[in-house]
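User: Second chain of the day. Same drill as before.
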Amino acid sequence: MKNLSRRTYAIAAIVLTAIIFVALNIAADATFTTERLDLTQTGAFTLAKGTKNIIAKIQDPITLKFFYSKKVAADYAQINAYAGRVHDLLEEYAARSHGKIILEDVDAEPFTPAEDEASADGLSGAPTESGDTVYFGLVGSNTIAGREIVPFFSQDREPYLEYDITSLIYRLSTPQKPVLGIITSLPLDTGAGGMMAAMQGQAQPFMIYQELNQTYTTKMLDPGFTSIPRDIGVLMIAHPGNLTPLQNYAIDQFVLGGGRALVFVDPNAELMGASQPGGEPAGPAASDLPQLFRAWGVAYNPGKVLGDRLRAQAVQMQSESGPAVVRYPIWLQLTTGDFDGKDQVTANLQTLNLASVGALSQAKGATTIFTPLVSSSNEASLLDSMDVKMNPRPQDLMQQIEPTGQRYTIAARISGPAKTAFPKGVPGAVGPRLMVSRGPINVIVMADSDIFDDKFWVHVENLYGKKMAAPFADNAAFVLNAVENLTGSDDLISLRTRAANNRPFVVVQKMQAEAQAEFQQQADALKQQLTDTEARLHALEQGGSTNGQPASSLTLTPDQQAEIERFKRQLIQTRTDLRDVQSNLRGNIDLLGSILAFVNIWLVAILVSVFALVLAVLRRRRRARAVVV
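Assistant: Same format as last time:
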């Protein structure tokens, strides 16, 4: 009877455990299916607060049609898996919207009305080996005939998935786009080819301008403008040309009256370095707003370019020994430690790639508040812009940098009360004149305009007839964040700024900068010695020439021959020393690479083996003690 009771208890315990297990699974499925644990440093897989805010603000229903060719894509595991993740995310949007977002699944199989609908809506189809087409996109619509699409969900843009979907919903839920006024001499809307390319139908607008155009109504101000249109809420001034007093006055009154401004000036705009077909410069190399900056409390010298040893970008150049990667100190790669972590515009930026930037500071006697947003490292100094243009060699620029220990400001927010830059007015101005700001002004200034150049931040590819952008830096994020922040809506910022996940090797960059600074002077001295030796050897050999022919051993004295041999040996030794110095430029980096390889490949395996051996010894000792007892 006792054995039977134990067996009964055991069976009852097993049955009870099974019941509890099933109950817990049901409870977890009902409670925790929408919860996710995100262990990534940047929170790449956590639904952002901005998404929740945008969904909560939806007034009228939005329909999302998710087109996916299930059967055709069944043989492609990666696409299938990604489609599952996209669909799960779309379902979460619909669930959180409480009926405001209607999700429809459309199976766009070949030779069906659904495929015709996908094609008519502008989605891009991916051809397969069988000749069929895979559709994998999204069409969103609202109740007032608004329509937005994601032509194809490329896996290259998976880090931007939430941003792409949320921005689509934002545009549909905000049919009245804010108006962004633009004053610029840059070919933002035509691309590097300028107006000539536009006239030939070959315009390639810069990607940042295209992204601005999606969210805002952009209004390019005519070069001869004399006032700022009233419907403009934010004014973007990007590398302006020589503005007239009346134009400066119009900007001054706009800002004093409560208008917000985003300003990009540049001591050496490399975007303007290209020439037109006739050989004329595309535009001014330097830009400045001296009168307005003084009134806003900003000090800026358009004749100085910032050089930074620690933030120098790696570029490939041709050297005497072949292609070499060197650090170019006027092309900067700025990382998280260089951004203001408290300001919405820069709080979540990962990387900015800039070129030939200037430096900003607070002017003496300023009534405004000067808040740095983007700064250099403390191994930087200012270089003369003309010297940089005349001699842009990286090694020479590195030698010119004399670090001051100061972190120079590249971008800043200007706020607080301000006075007019034109207390006496200007001829031709009409209407009432503001002498002081109606409230705190709100202006963001950056001393660089090459931030718009696609080559510094994005790879653009043609995917099934549609352009697909894959950013590797946050240049667009900074511009879009700034515009959105100045319009008073920050919801998309938390999505956009976490998209780019480029994490540079900061330690390696610092080692490269230090090595180049340490060895470059020695390398240059050896190169000069090599040149001098070759010249003296050539002169000595020519000294015994006859009728312009090189000297032979018969026409040279024994002392001359000995001197030539000595120079040849010196030449060989100098070349050897130069190779050693160039090798030293990478010595510490290679050592670091070897250490990391050892840690990743061998150290973990060794530690596991040692742990297993120690555990085996301890178990053997315990068994021995048990036998003795």
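Residues 275-279, 545-549 have pLDDT under 50 and may be disordered.

User: Great, on to the next one.
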